[in-house]
Write a structure and sequence with these properties.
By secondary structure, this protein is an all-alpha fold. It has one domain. The protein has 10 helices and no strands. The N and C termini lie far apart (51 Å).
């Protein structure tokens, strides 16, 4: 199926996106839990004396990405388990595909929020929180559509979103969520095959989340060390 065939219309994307966003928001971990994850990853990541902060932050970010990729893998295998039982089990697995996308996005958004906090932005700020949601959604779309027109579109947006006004963020977030809803159905086909479904669910989720995490970390690194400093007055820039 071509990218054009799976792309939601402007009429359906916001509605689909709103439903998926609402489902994800209901199961996101609270801020205290997310900050605790960042603190734990920071404590166990040794910082070498005189090591640049940027290098250490990248190491902590990698640990957070691995943590959330493992969580996503467990959710993928669990939602595919009903496919082991033909008939009713396959029907349940089909419904589980959308549940799986919701769970994957939960972990990917939590990962983006943790990385946002790690790189110095307050995830209690509603705008920063929404930016983290958008970053996770955009990077998930990019990971889903490698080599497609969608990848080209969102790849140019990852840096630009930092300058979005709240209304722009909301609109872009609903559009991205709508597209992810459609793609989750297409991606679920292999998971309806007994045995294969469990492996595909766990493996794809872990790989996808790891890929999304690396891209999120890279964009947040650029935001902190390149874009923010480039916009600062010369005397305020870090050495």
């Amino acid at each position: 199926m071509s990218d054009q065939d799976t792309r939601p219309t402007s009429r359906t994307a916001p509605a689909d996106g709103e439903r998926l966003l609402s489902a994800v928001e209901r199961i996101i971990a609270d801020r205290a839990d997310l900050i605790a994850r960042v603190a734990e990853a920071s404590v166990v990541t040794e910082r070498i004396p005189h090591e640049p902060e940027r290098v250490w932050l990248a190491a902590v970010a990698a640990r957070l990405v691995t943590m959330h990729a493992r969580m996503a893998a467990v959710s993928g295998g669990a939602t595919a388990l009903p496919s082991l039982f033909p008939g009713v089990g396959t029907a349940i697995a089909a419904a589980g595909t959308l549940a799986d996308m919701t769970l994957v996005l939960k972990f990917e958004v939590e990962m983006a929020l943790c990385l946002t906090q790690l790189y110095g932005w307050d995830i209690e700020d509603p705008h920063e929180r929404q930016l983290a949601f958008l970053l996770a959604s955009v990077e998930t779309l990019t990971a889903h559509d490698r080599g497609s027109a969608v990848k080209h579109m969102v790849a140019t947006e990852a840096t630009a979103i930092w300058n979005y006004a709240p209304r722009q963020v909301s609109k872009a977030l609903l559009t991205a969520m709508g597209r992810l809803t459609v793609r989750s159905v297409a991606r679920g086909a292999l998971r309806l095959l007994p045995i294969v479904g469990v492996a595909v669910g766990a493996g794809v989720n872990q790989t996808l989340t790891r890929r999304v995490g690396k891209r999120c970390a890279r964009e947040l690194d650029r935001r902190r060390f390149e874009l923010t400093e480039a916009a600062a007055p010369r005397g305020d820039r870090k050495a």
